[in-house]
From TrEMBL:
Any single biological process term in GO: fatty acid metabolic process
Taxonomic superkingdom: Eukaryota
Pfam family name, one: Carn_acyltransf
An example Gene Ontology CC term for this record: mitochondrion
Gene3D superfamilies in UniProt: Chloramphenicol acetyltransferase-like domain
Gene Ontology molecular functions: carnitine O-palmitoyltransferase activity
Name assigned to this protein: Choline/carnitine acyltransferase domain-containing protein
Similarity-based family: Belongs to the carnitine/choline acetyltransferase family.
Length: 133
């Protein structure tokens, strides 16, 4: 959290802005060195293990069934008319689907920064509202 505060405030505090909102100072750009290809000298057993692992991963990827359904009944405009953000709408839909499938509420995760409270830390908020039940 200290680093993030530095990121969002350093430019404003130390560099400043011109009257038209542009950053003061001169931009510096030093291009990084060009990448070089690494040459590996692996023994045959390691190459065989890599090939086996690759085949297992390929088999797992090929064992996935994916169906995509086009939903055209309504979109984000409807959600906003209901005074619900599209993100909140999708979150509630996911929670409802989980509840219908598992028969219990899911634990949702929402980070909350309490940097300016007490010793400052990141807490986890477990939102559950009357509206979501």
């Amino acid at each position: 959290s200290h680093f993030w505060e530095y990121v969002v405030s350093d430019e404003t505090i130390n560099m400043g802005y011109t009257s038209d909102g542009r950053c003061l100072g001169t931009p510096e750009y030093n291009p990084p060195p060009m990448p070089i290809r690494l040459q590996w000298d692996l023994p045959p057993p390691a190459l065989a293990a890599i090939d086996r692992s690759y085949q297992i991963a390929l088999d797992l990827c090929n064992d996935v069934d994916l169906r995509i359904y086009m939903h055209t009944a309504y979109g984000k405009g409807f959600m906003k008319e209901c005074k619900v953000s599209p993100d909140a709408y999708i979150q509630m839909a996911l929670q409802l689907a989980y509840f219908r499938d598992a028969g219990r509420f899911s634990l949702t995760y929402e980070a909350s920064m309490t940097r300016l409270y007490r010793e400052g830390r990141t807490e986890t908020v477990r939102p559950c509202t009357i509206e979501s039940t």
